[in-house]
Design brief:
Structural class: mainly alpha
Largest sheet: none
Order of helices and strands: HHHHHHHH
Low-confidence stretches: 1-5
Number of strands: 0
Number of helices: 8
Helix content: over 70%
């Protein structure tokens, strides 16, 4: 969408037609750093003047943290949800802001580049397997992959391995595909009716940006919950 989203490329003097690979790399890195900077700024604003009765940015961030904690409590219980709250809340805030950038004309969502969703998916994949092994032990954790019936071990183990690796695809391509599709939809709308028609799509795409962040957080909690609760199966 270089014809419509050119703020960053204008700053760096880049053209999509001149060097597509360089253009893509700069767009991705610049918007990813912008998303991270906005997230850090929001956190700094929320913590700069903490009050007993929260207001402003502190109130918004506390409501967000409470919502993420409640989500995790429903999945794995309050104690475990609190333990993994920093990871899940950070990912959710980062992904939510990154998604919202794509709704703003002049910017691109870094989550519309496969590199970012895949990196986040790899972080979640490595971390929940690490937590499962740390909490359960190597033998006990991978024994869960064998299933409950001993004579089906030979079949269940490769199926479980494939199932776990498919979570990388589930996390990364779901986020990438939805955000990329939303960006393309917005591009078409802006080309057809740049002033009147986009109002409704802007509202819809804003909702979808939050929804995709919610889904990513929920799946992260689900995968972590499954990893640390192996001994209960």
């Amino acid at each position: 969408m270089p014809e419509l989203f050119t703020f960053i490329s204008a700053v760096f003097g880049l053209s999509h037609h001149g060097n597509p690979e360089l253009y893509k790399m700069v767009m991705y890195i610049a918007h990813m750093l912008l998303s991270a900077s906005i997230a850090l700024l929001l956190v700094k604003m929320a913590m700069s003047n903490l009050q007993l009765v929260p207001k402003g940015t502190q109130n918004v961030m506390e409501a967000y943290i409470s919502g993420v904690l409640k989500m995790g409590t429903d999945v794995m219980g309050q104690e475990a949800a609190r333990r993994y709250l920093p990871l899940v809340a950070t990912i959710g805030l980062f992904v939510g802001i990154a998604n919202l950038l794509g709704v703003l004309p002049g910017f691109e969502a870094p989550t519309a580049f496969l590199e970012m969703p895949l990196t986040l998916a790899l972080v979640v994949f490595v971390y929940y397997n690490f937590e499962g092994i740390r909490r359960q032990g190597v033998v006990k954790y991978f024994k869960h992959f064998l299933g409950p019936v001993w004579w089906l071990y030979w079949l269940m183990f490769p199926i479980e391995i494939v199932s776990h690796f498919s979570r990388l695809v589930s996390l990364s391509f779901r986020l990438f595909g939805n955000v990329k599709g939303d960006d393309m939809f917005l591009m078409v709308i802006l080309m057809l009716a740049p002033w009147v028609l986009p109002m409704v799509p802007f509202a819809l795409l804003t909702f979808m940006a939050f929804l995709q962040a919610f889904i990513f957080m929920m799946l992260t909690y689900v995968y972590l919950g499954g990893a640390i609760a192996v001994d209960e199966h």
